[in-house]
Structure formats: structure tokens, C-alpha cells
Amino acid sequence: MDRIGDFNMKDDDANDDDDSRPIIHSVGGEEPSILTSNFFLDHVGEVFLTLKPDGLSWKLMDSLCNDNEDRSTCLGIQFLSKQDTSINISDVYAVEFIDWGLVHKTLLTNPGFLLGHASEMYRFTVHGIERSKSQPSLWAPTVFTFAHVDKQTCQMWANRMNSYLSLETDRPRNLLVYVNPGSGKGNGCRTWESVAPIFSQAKVKTKVIVTERAGHARDAMASITNRELNLYDGIVAVGGDGFFNEILNGILLPRHRAPYPPTPPDDDPTIETESDVLLHDPTVTIVDPTVPNDDESPLLKRSTLNESQAVNLNQDSEMSFPNERFRFGLIPSGSTDAIVICTTGVRDPMTSALQIILGKRVCLDIAQVVKWEKSHTSKNKPHVRYAASFAGYGFYGDVITESEKYRWMGPKRYDYAGTKVFLRHRSYEAKVAYMKAESEKTNVGANARRIKAFWGLTKESERIACRAKCDICNTTSVAPQREKPDPKQESNWVRVKGRFLSIGAAVISCRNDKAPDGLVVDAHLSDGFLHLVLIKECPRAFYLWHLTQLARKGGTPLNFDFVEHHKTTTFTFTSSGEESVWNVDGEILQARKLSAQVFRGLISLFASGPETYKTHFADFIQEPASIINNVYPFSLFFFNVILNSFRYYNSLPPVAKTYATICFFMSLCSELNLYSPWTVALSYEDVFKHFQIWRLVTNFIFLGSFSLTFAFRLFIILKYGVQLERGPFDKRTADYVWMFFFGAFSLLAISVIPFLRSPFMGASLVFMIVYVWGREFPNTRINIYGLVELKGFYLPWAMVALDLVFGDTLMPSLLGIGVGHLYYFLTVLHPLAGGTDFCKTPFWVHKLVKYWGRGYQMNSPVKKADPSTGVAFQGRSYRVGGTSSASTRYPPNVGAFNGRSRRMDTSS
Ligand SMILES: Nc1ncnc2c1ncn2[C@@H]1O[C@H](COP(=O)(O)OP(=O)(O)OP(=O)(O)O)[C@@H](O)[C@H]1O
């Protein structure tokens, strides 16, 4: 077996007898800080490697690549992933010496030094992270394998790197991991299994506990002693926001000590202040920090907190916490995962795992939500909850309550429950009082905000989203505590009373898949504010508009007159009528009276914050629609709707478009009483006796008066009819038109039998489309009302079943299926089995289409087909007067329809 033994040192300093030995630079003392040597980088080639305390870098010793050349071009496509030439120690999570073994030769044809060399050496691997170029927040593990013929050299480099890694003291060594097996789609365990190997690679010890029931983790956290907790550098939750909340509460409830926020005023208008609560309400059960804890660990005592901890944990609060290194980790596996998206920038278990292993840290504000209730001993007995992301009432509470009934649906339950609750459109009477934050300006009205935004006058600070190394979070967390407004002073409070669709308090922006910018785009991870969003009662359409803005990237969900957004530190709430519930981080809290306050940077998370996040000001300015939106919101809403509808309509293919348009206008005219539907219905008597032959056609184009059934039929044409025309009937306009003619003729023939006759056969024709679509797209997955998923093949039958359930007549659907099957049999199945094609598109249909001038004309060039379209009708195009058009998709002489094209200038 060959060995590489002739590394060439190209550095002038590396003028050693044995080129393969590392050069050691001693800088400023005994400890050599720089190592250099030649190594073989697996899959790349020979490199000159340099190790410094802050990182490893290398230079490809490829004589063919000059330094000015673009390495990626030079190295070729195989090496794109290995074009890095350095990695910081802070991005490395493991270095391992691995024994003698295979290294892969580069595929470069470089006769200078790569070809002909041996392929086995001693190796050490460097495991680090790679940031996605397009989405820097997304991290993936990467590995570099360096090889050398000398074992000692390899070992020495690996040891040196490991010694540098050991200086990274902020990294966890020992973690307690809780896995919720039922989170999200029930894949908590799989999520953990997918990331567990990198924890062992990084030599991070993990004690993994899979929960057995709801509340398991909270109970465990509440009962674990601080001494035991102190053995760990953090707790990692593998699950969703609700599961994280459970662990957070398990940790904080017995340990966090701070005065409660003021109770909401009863009928008495004076607000009770913190001290009022403490002094006058004997029932408030604040844990006395002076009461000795069973646990003897000195770290638990507040007096032992050093200054930095005190700043970190917020000076308002008093908290016994195990150790300074302690952080929370969250590996996303839930249905929403807003906390992970806000703290890492992406919803990716691997990114979260890597950020935990590399010991990243961000501080997170925590809201303390206190529910006050009457007990037999007290007027106001507090029940405390902590929230890391959001507490919401009304719509938010109703959605979470409704969604709990459909947990079996997985994450889809939120869509379903959201739609139901939206349709209910309930508002709730409530009183809200919030403390004015010193930085909040007078309440700028929505119109003024809109105009300011339009002219670019909105202050940058009002729009800056939180990001990694966020200035707002960092400056505020180290700056002296803001002077808090005195809660005793009535002038520091603002009171709002009315009917609200929802009341929300966002601790962080709450970005998630459904709201890409979150509810409050500029809510920061540790800005020390609660962002109170009050949505007053408004028409359903306006609320829908708010929701669509929420669902849109760059949307402005808070720029409405019925929406108020206030930055505050404390607020109180009292329900004064019909009640909803509170949704605290996805968990239900029933409270008639509630108050909340925020603790700035109360906990630390293993996360680095989202990478640079683009504000949407530029988008806003560029998009003309958005400009109008902010000046003439109402007109733009309709303008947008009309514009998008127009665009959509224009994009429709001709046959489906024409059929849908005619049907729509037929129903519209009937609605306007311009004619009676009975004058267009099928009646053979009128056709033959009174020569009302139009009835033979018009009965197919009246789909009913405006109703849900009509909308559904139109939807079928626009969805399935369009898919057929764009797919299997692509470039075969005449064939598609013929399908409709065939259906109509067949239905007319069938309706000669009185029992099977129906005055309007349009519904059957539409159903025929569904049947043919089902045969053409048999494996496409269909979701019915978000409840059942089935294959396209079964769609017509599922629709028949629905007709049955809703008590609709089955005849039109069954006739449509029958005719659809007849068509499919004659045009596809029978010819495929070697039979004669009885159902060829007649020549007059081609002529008609030519005369019509829409779609693909006779003699038009046959374009290359889209391979993703349907299968059965491939190759059945007719090139009239052109060369034979065998399948445009199948190779010659393969498939059912080869040779069935015909030339107009010859007989078929
Ligand atoms: N073993 C278990 N069996 C049943 N429920 C559990 C179990 N472990 C935890 N839970 C509960 O499951 C609830 C939801 O968990 P989680 O937050 O992980 O998922 P999710 O609700 O799908 O996601 P999200 O909160 O992001 O919407 C939590 O309230 C938690 O108490």
C-alpha cells in the first residue's frame, strides 16, 4: 500500500529536512501558539495547515490554482463543500484522532502531486459548523479530515486543538434532556435521535428523560433539588413551546422570588400597587427568600450571586438559581416553535443542537402572569404562571381551547380551530390598564403611523427586528436599570375599556411559520417590554385583513385603527362579561382577573439569536401596492383583490376559463332576473315540439344559483379542469374540447331515459372532470376539509360519499362518473389494451378550435412537455399538416399512444 510521504512545504519558513514534521512557532514564551504543517485534506488534496488559538486555516497547495483564481471554479463542482479555508475554534465542537485509514483522492487531474499517491494515512477529524449561505441562521455540521503519514503529528495536532477547545468554558458538559414524545406530529423522540449523535461526538453528557404524561417535566423540575440541578449546565427541552413553558414553570415557580404585579382594580378605581399587595393582602403567598432551603448548596443563596449574575437575572427579581452557566435549551419538535424561531432564526433541530453544544447564549425576557381569584380566605389569591413568548386572550384563547379538541390532527389543528373561531367572530368585554413605559411616545394613531411609514419617517428603532448580538438587547441588559415609573401614581397608568376581539401580550416577536414576522416585528428577546396588542371589536372582514397582514412577510398587522400596540412593563386585565380564556405560551389559563409584568433577561438560553434579519422597509417602498395600502388602505384592499383576481383569471387556460366564465355569467344573469333558469333547462318536449334547441346546450352551462354548491362546482372547473388542461391535455386543446363534447353528447343520450333525466346536466359534466382528473392524477394526495387525506383516484368516490352524508342527490355525480369512465375507457383503457380508438377527436373539433383561435392550434409547434404532468394522455396530440407527433414525452415506439398522430394532409 502506498503512502504519501513527499509533502512539499511551499512556505519559506518551512525549510525543514523532514517536510512532514510540523513547524512550531513559539510566540511570547514557552507555549507555542502556532502550528503549521502540510496535511492531506480528505476529498480536497494537499494543504498547508496553520493552527492558531482562535482557529485553523489552510491553503491548497495546488500549483494549478493561482491565488487570484476563484477556488470554487478551479476545484470543480466536487469540492464546493470543501472550499472553506478556515474554521474558528468557536465553530468547532469536536476533534478526534482516528487511526490509519482511507483518504479520498481529489478528482482534480493534477499530475503534480495527487495522482499516483497512496490513499491511506493517519487522520484527525475536525467537526464544526457550517452556516448556510442563503440563510445564515441555518447551521449544519461539517467535518474536515486531515491526514498525515506520521501518527505523532496527527495526534499532536488533535491534542492541541482539543486543548484550545477546552478553553471554551461557556460550553455545556452535562445536560438534562427532557423529550416530549407527543409534541408536534408525535416525533419528539425521533427529533432527539436525529441530534443525539452530535452530543456524544462533542462529549456532552446527557441524561435523557422521555416524559410519560403532561405535567411530568414540570413536576420533575419542581421536585428536583437545587443541588441536583447544579450538576447540570442546563436543561434541554425537545418539544414545542408548550413543553418549554412547562419546564420553565417547573423551574421558576418554586425558585423565582419577586413582588407580584399590581392586582387589577375591582370596582374601586384606585390601583393597588405592588406594596399594597404585599402589605395589605394577607393571602399573597410570596416565597420568603430568607426561609432556609433544604438544599445546602451555597450557590442557591442570593447573597452568593455575583454582580454579573445579578444584572443578568434582573435586579428587580430575586432568584435562587443553580449556577451562572445554567441555561435553557430548546430543540424544536412542536407545532409552532415560535421560541426557537425567535431565538435561533430557524426552526431546525440540528441548528438548535449545535447552538447548545457550542454554548451560545442569549438572555430572554420572561413574563410573570398572575391570575387573581377569590378564595374563602382572600379576595385576591394569586396563581402564577411564567411565559417566554406570549399571553393572549379572546381569539388566541379560543383558538387554543378549540385546537385542544383536535390534538390528533397534529399541527393542522391550529388551521382548523383558527378558521372555526374566526367564523364565530366573538368579542369580549374587558378592562385593561397598562403602565406607560417611559420610552413610549404618546399613542400615535394608526393613520399617523401609516403616513409616517409611507414617507419613511418611521424611526429605525421602531422597526428594528431582534437579531444575533442585538444592540437593543445588549445595551439594555448591561445598562443601568431603567427608571421604572411609579405604579402608585395614577398618571402612569392608561386605562382602556371596551369590547376586544383579542388582547395579546408578546414577550418576543413570536415569529412562526404562519406569521413570518411575528405579531410584533420589533419585540426583542430582552428589551424588557411586554408588547400589548389590543384588537378592538371590528367587522369580520377587517379582522381578516389584520390576520392576512399577520400571515404576510413584511405585513403590517398593527397598522389598523382597531389595533392598539403599547410597550409596557406591567398591565392588568379584568373581564366584565362573557369570558374567554388566556393562552399562555400555548397553555390554557382561565382568569377573570389577571395581571402581568415582565422580567428583563430573566433566563439565559442556549441560542445565538437570529442572524441579520432584513427589515421590510425596502420591500415596503418598492412594492407599489404597499404604498397605496398605506395611503388608501380600503381602496388598496379591493384594488389588490381585483388585481390579483384579474391576474389569476388571465393566467387560466382557455377551455376551463371559457366554461367557468360562461357558467358564472349564466348564474349571475339568473340572479339578476334577466332570464328564468327554466328557459334553459333540458326538456326534450320543448326541443322537439317548440324547436328550443338551445336547451341541448344551455342545460350544461347553468350550474345553479349563487350558493355554496355553485361555488363548489366552479371550484372544480377552476382547479381540476385547469389541472387537466395544463397537464394531460397540455397542447391538446381540441382533445380537451372533445372531452366536453363527448360528455355532453353522452349525457344527452342518457337523459333520453326519463328516470335518468335531469333539467340541468352541468353538474354531471363537472363531475366528469373530477373523474377524469382522478384517473389522470391517481396518486396526488388530496385533503378533504383538512380532515381526511386520500389519493386522487378516490376523489370522485369521496365526493359521492359527501353527497350522501349531506343528503344531496347522487344522480348527477353518478352520471358524471359513468360518462367519465366511458370516455376514459374509450380513449385510454381500450386503446391501451390494443383495441381500436373509437373516440378519436373528430376533425371538425380541430377545425372548430382553429376557428376559435384559442389554445393550441393545428400546425402549432409541439413544445417539450412538462414531465410532472399527467400520464395517460401523453402522445395523443395531433399535428395537423405537420409531421407526425408521436409522444412528446415517450421515446419513439414506447407507450400506448405511439403512432396515433395524424397529418392533416394525409388520411388518418
Ligand atoms: N408524554 C406526554 N404525553 C402527553 N402530553 C405530554 C407529554 N409530555 C408533555 N406533554 C404535554 O404536551 C403539551 C404540548 O407539547 P408541545 O408544546 O411539545 O407540543 P405542541 O403543542 O405540538 O407544540 P407547540 O407548543 O409548539 O404548539 C404540553 O403541554 C405538555 O405538557
Topology of helices and strands:
Elements: E1 23-26, E2 32-41, E3 45-52, E4 55-60, H1 71-75, E5 86-88, E6 92-102, E7 120-131, E8 139-148, H2 151-166, E9 174-179, H3 188-201, E10 205-210, H4 216-223, H5 226-229, E11 234-239, H6 241-255, E12 256-257, H7 274-280, H8 307-312, E13 318-319, E14 327-332, H9 338-344, H10 349-357, E15 362-373, E16 381-387, E17 390-394, H11 395-404, H12 412-424, E18 428-435, H13 446-454, H14 460-463, H15 471-478, E19 493-506, E20 530-536, H16 540-550, E21 563-568, E22 570-575, E23 582-584, E24 587-589, E25 593-605, H17 617-622, H18 624-631, H19 633-651, H20 654-671, H21 684-689, H22 695-698, H23 708-726, H24 733-750, H25 762-776, E26 781-784, E27 788-791, H26 795-806, H27 811-832, H28 843-852
Bound molecules: adenosine-5'-triphosphate.
Adenosine-5'-triphosphate binds at residues 180-184, 211-216, 239-243, 246, 334-337, 586-587.
